[in-house]
Amino acid sequence: MLSRVNSWRVNTSDFETIKVLATGAVGTVCLVRAKADSKVYAMKTLKKIDLLTRQEAGFFMEERNALVFAQNSQWITTLHAAFQDEDNLYLIMEYVSGGSLRNFMNSQESALNEDDVKFYVAEMVLALDELHKNNIIHRDVKPENSLIDSSGHIKLADFGSCIKLSDSNAKICSGDTVGTPEYVCPEILQANEGKYSYSREADWWSLGIITYELLFDDTPFYSDSLMGLYHNIIGHEQNFVFPEEREVSPECRDFLSKLIVSGDKRLGRNSTAEIKAHPWFKGINWDTIRTQTPPFVPELNGPDDTRYFEDEEDESKNARGPSRMPVRSGHMAP
Question: Which UniProt keywords apply (predicted)?
Answer without folding.
Answer: ATP-binding, Kinase, Nucleotide-binding, Phosphoprotein, Serine/threonine-protein kinase, Transferase
